[in-house]
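From the shared-data thread, chain only:
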Amino acid sequence: MPETAPGARPPFRLGAIVLAAGGSSRMGTVKQLLELDGKPLIVRAADAVLGSPARPVVVVVGAHAEMVRAPIARHPVSVVFNPEWASGLASSIRVGLAALLAAEPGLDAVLVALCDQPALSPEVIGSLAALHRATGRIAAARYGGRNGAPAVFGRGHLAALGALDGDEGARRMLNGDPEGVAAADLPEMGADLDTPADCRGWASRHSKP
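Structure, as tokens:
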């Protein structure tokens, strides 16, 4: 690995966790495999993160694990199974973070992203990473009056991230301390697909003429 030149800023090491373990109870089908513009949501999410500088990339699966794993089998990501996926988002964050730090212990920051946000893109990830570097704070997307995923957590926040419990994920970390979070207004990230009506709404708003 080339050495950093004297006086130069060391490279920023960002890893990523993509959460794709949910049971899709409200969708009535395997949400991770739902296709938008001919591409399953899990593939859209993996492609978005791989289009950013984030490496390594860990995808956490749970419900329908083998079905969700199949479309990204050739993607350069690590797929890990969360046996406690039904307990909520926090368990998947813990599993993903453990796998990420085992692969790359020296990470400076970690992106946490959801596979059901169709507006996730390399540009969104890049803007959040830049915001984190500029402020030193957690950088989160803001939509619907709250901070949420995707979000970038710095090294100093990883212990708290790994200690999360329950089904809220990192919601309290992102909204409990306004001074500790830098928010980027990204209303498009509020479009997560939980029900068939959500999918129809997204398709109607983004259909090509």
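The chain has a mean pLDDT of 89.
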